[in-house]
Structure formats: C-alpha cells, structure tokens
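To assess whether the prediction recovers the assembly geometry, we first specified each molecular entity separately, as shown.
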Amino acid sequence: MLKKSRLNAVLGRMEKMGLEQMVITDAISILYLTGVWVDACERLVALYINKNGGNRFFVNNMFHVPKNVGVHMVRFTDTDPYLKMLSDCTDHTKPLGVDKNIPARFLLPLMEMGAGTSYVNASICVDETRAFKDEEERQAMRLASTINDKAMEKFKALLKPGITEREVANQFKEIYQSLGADDVSFPPSVCFGPDAAVGHYRCGDVALKEGDCILIDTGCIKDNYCADMTRTFFCGKVKNEEHRKVYELVLAANRAAEAMIKPGVRFCDIDAAARKVIADAGYGDKFTHRLGHFIGMEVHDFGDVSSANEAVAQQGNIFSIEPGIYLEGNMGVRIEDLVLVTEDGCEILNSFDKELQIV
Amino acid sequence: MLKKSRLNAVLGRMEKMGLEQMVITDAISILYLTGVWVDACERLVALYINKNGGNRFFVNNMFHVPKNVGVHMVRFTDTDPYLKMLSDCTDHTKPLGVDKNIPARFLLPLMEMGAGTSYVNASICVDETRAFKDEEERQAMRLASTINDKAMEKFKALLKPGITEREVANQFKEIYQSLGADDVSFPPSVCFGPDAAVGHYRCGDVALKEGDCILIDTGCIKDNYCADMTRTFFCGKVKNEEHRKVYELVLAANRAAEAMIKPGVRFCDIDAAARKVIADAGYGDKFTHRLGHFIGMEVHDFGDVSSANEAVAQQGNIFSIEPGIYLEGNMGVRIEDLVLVTEDGCEILNSFDKELQIV
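The predicted structure of the complete assembly is given in tokenized form:
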C-alpha cells in the first residue's frame, strides 16, 4: 500500500530541486514507497510520481502485484512499447527526475521520445527520505539486529580450533533462518588471524588455531530490513600484549563515537572522535576506512559517517559505527554496532557483548 | 591479460553500427575482454575502447589489478574527477557507444561534458561477441557442467521423505564447493509437488512426501563460467498415469529439440520443435516459457531460444534447452541441459541421466 507520508517527503525534496516529476526505477526505493517488492531483473519496473498527481506504477504482467496498491497500475507485456507508455505519462514540458541507476537502455529511449525537457539525477530526494526511519522501520531494524545478536551467540559457539573460515560461514544462512530471519543481508566475513587485516575478505579454507583473532562481520535480513554487526574474538588466548591493546583501542573508539551521537552532531566529528582514539595511540594509519555507513532496506543505504560528511545526525537516522585496526600479515580487530539517533542521544541496536572474549 | 581477438570482434561489430568508440562499464564484459575482475559495486569501472587505439582501463585505486593487463590503466581515487578524466579520453567529435546498463549517475555527467556527439546503446556488440564461446570458454563451460552433473547425484541422495525443500537447498553451496566449484550460479530451485508448477519458485518449508514430483533447477560457477541444469524426480512412486505421461512428453520435447541443433537452424524452429511435441499432446498452454537462454559468464547471457528469435544457431553458441509442463496445484516437470553448437550438430554438456527416476 502506497506510503503517502514517504511519498510526500520525496515530493517535498524534489520541489526544492525544482522538480515536479520523477521516474523511480530502483526496486528497493519502489518497495519503500509502495510496499510492493518486484524483482524484475532486467525488465522495467518504474514508479512515476508527479506533484500534480498522475502517479503511475509500471509493472510487467509476469510479476504479481497485490490488489489496492493505492496507485494507478500500468501493466504490460514484453512485447508492449512500455517505454513509450511511460513517456506518454510524463509531462514533456518539464524537467524529468530520474533514478541514479536507471540504465541507458531505458534512459536513452526516454530521452529520444522527449519524456522531459531535461533529465536530472534526482535519487537524492528518495535517498535522503530513506535516511529517516519512521516508527515502522525502526521496529523492523530493531528486530533484525536482535536476531543478529542471537545469531552471533551461535556463530561464536562454532569457533573451535581446526574449523575453517568457510565451514563457519557456510552455516550462517541456516542459523539465521532458524532464528526467523529471511536471509543473510550480505555474504558474511569470517576471518582468522592475518585474514582479519585483509579488506573485504570473505572466507577461505584457513583453519582456526590458538592465538588467532576471529573477526566476524555479518548480518541478516528480516522483513526487508538489514542488520550488520562485527565482533572480534580470540581463540584460546590473546597472543600478545599488542593484540590486547589493539582490541581495547578499537573498543574505546567504538564507545567514544557512540557516546557523542545525538541530533545536531556532525558525522565528520563522530568519525574524528573515533579516529582520534586510535591515532593518539599511534595506529591512525591502520584504521583504513570510514567509521560507518547508513543502513536500512540496503546494507549500504545512502549516507556515511566519514571525514567528508559535514551533515549533522538527525533523529531517525540509523547507521553503523565500526572502527577497526588492521595489522597486515598479523591480525585485525573491528567492532561494529548499528545505532539509531533518538531525540537526545542514540539507541544502540546491538546488545551483543563487546568486551574482549576468548573462545 | 587483454583478449585481443575478443576485443577485435567487438570493434568489428561496432564498425558495422558506425561506431569507433565505446565505454564498457559492465563488470562481466570487462572481465571477458581484459581477464580482470573488478567488483566495484557502486564505483565506476570502465573500459574505453577505440578502433584507432587509445584504449584505457579506468579502475579505482582501492581495487587490485594485476600488472600487465595489456591496456593503459587509469587509476583514480574517490575524490578525483574520474568522469572528467574519462571524458577527456573520448573523441568528442564522434558518437559514443555506451553499455546498456551504464547508470544515469555516470551517463548524464558524460553527456553534460560532451563526451560524444551522441550516445548509443552499443552493448549488442559485446553481447553478440560473448555469444560465441572460444575454446578456452568451451572448456570452462564443460568443466562447470561436469561439476553440476556430479552435484546432482549428491542432491538426489538427499531426497528422503520428510526433508524440506529448504533443507535440501541449503546444502547445495557446500556440496558444490566440495566438488571444486566456486559458488552457486543462482539461488537454486527445489520444488516438491505443486511447488514445481510455480514460476520462479525457489524453496520453502514444504516436506517431501511419497508421490511428489521433485524439480531441481540448479547450477554452479567455476572459473567465472556458469552451469545450469534441471532434473525432475519422483518420490517413492509416480502418483498417476498423467504424471508419467507429462514426464515422458517433456523428455521427448527436450530430445526433439536437441536432435535438431546444428549451425544454420533458427532458434525459433528449435523452440517450435519442442513446443510441438507438448502441444500435440494437448499441453501447449502448460509450457509457459521460452525453450532456452544463452549462458556463459552469466546464467542468462544475451540471446534466447524462443519463438521470437529468428537468428540461426552458430558454432560456439551455448544455450539451455529446458522444456516444461506445469499443472497448477498439482505438479510440474522440466528437463534442462546446456548444449554447445558444434560444426555439424551439438554437444550436450550435461550427462546426468534424463530417464524417469524414482527416489
């Protein structure tokens, strides 16, 4: 069912850009606005919105759509001139907003038909709206993270010397499903020892051995919303004092950032606070990525917590806080929670223990 | 390492379209042409090609690229004006071919900078080239299908009354990996009884019971090439004569199609031959999809075996032959092989038995 308040927020942002009309083709943005999930793969699915009305939802006949979506449906087949049908709905005398990812095979024909006077990447209007989670979304995000917390307990129980990263990772999907999640939200990272220092590492055939750090970055999807959490454990013992120090630094950076989150604080300042803890101890160059990213229906929603983002946190934003220190060829630690900005602070959506744990 | 013969084939097709230059942004097409896989997610990765030389490969610094790719590399960071850098390489006095899926956030700025005199969806030049598998690709496709055949034996062994579709499907990835595959090539379908008649069904919590048909549509990836096969079994017994008849019809349709494949035969005629077997028995309206699709680095490469495709099969084409009959609320049967068009016939890449099997 069409979510009118979300749609109105998008139209409001479009107005500030001088846009009256837009074609939204991103399946997740369409789900966000209509409540309808259409996985059209290479086929067109489009929501046309106009501040003067005349909204239209274009969906190929081969996909099921519930009755009463609350927007006029245009159904078509593969042999219909669906781009012409779409162009026939747009106001050819006005600029046309388009999705940042609309592919050339749709955009070039629309341009040729003169669907608008000009074409503007207007995704920011949807993306910024999606950055403010309404109550329904907050509940969904809490639930996904609650499942993620429970799942991490089960993942931790798998960590015995000799098991490989892949053997651990291969069990995540089933564990998530047994806890009521729909799926993983991304291919999990299970990294032992030096692998924890490799960016974007997923898993391999390395077996766990005493003294290894164990970095697990994982999340599930529940009711279309994503969880994402990282914890780092140690197998049997902490190998040396530097490993312990690195862990405590990352934890302190995580807590320093989370402690300052409230409406009005700039994202670059949150990033700086975490980075300062790590840099002051001489590991600044080992924290090689931004502090966090927005999350919601996508694991990486638009928006981040980085030195480049001077915008301020606002109530309803949900993002990750995930400082890390990576010692190449040796070990790595990252500790990541999701946080929701509240009226006067933040709610940490993950409750899984962050103190150093030996398994 | 740049695959010169593939690149020259693409440039040859571009010439027929009147194009001298093109920006290729599809990661798989780039892998096909350069041998380099860059999973850039939302970041730009682009291969610029020009018949007059001046080829350039644009890759963000954060992604590893092997030395000696055989094409001039342009490396950049997130804060560099990478679209301007790309536009600076193109010939602004000529039309510019672009990828069918290049997103608006790249295409609109390139247009604004006047990267070409006009912009043409030229993906067909790459896609048609990819439709002819060279010897290296044929070997990779054979290997992926050989693994898929072996995996199907293991999947079949899981089929005991009481097991659910999901419990079966959840084991595929690990089984494929144990056989040397890199991953599944798509989320497998495991359908019991009436679920086998539901289009695009994946799996659910339905338990297997005697008399059910069992439709398994599955594939793996090995060395960047995809397998895809469907087999239909019966649990304990064939419930009734219609089920047996449906199976035999689908098998006859599969064989009729495969028997006629050779260079010069139209795809629509191959589709028609399979469809005739099924329609003559009165089930024409229960065979609700095209007969097959091309496959290679993607499960669905460009090109299909359908009533709409009047092109002729040529040596080196690889596609699926997958007739089916679907009886809603009752059962469904599909039997799918991959075939390679040879000099005077075809090589069936799957050797898993197609006779009716009771498990």
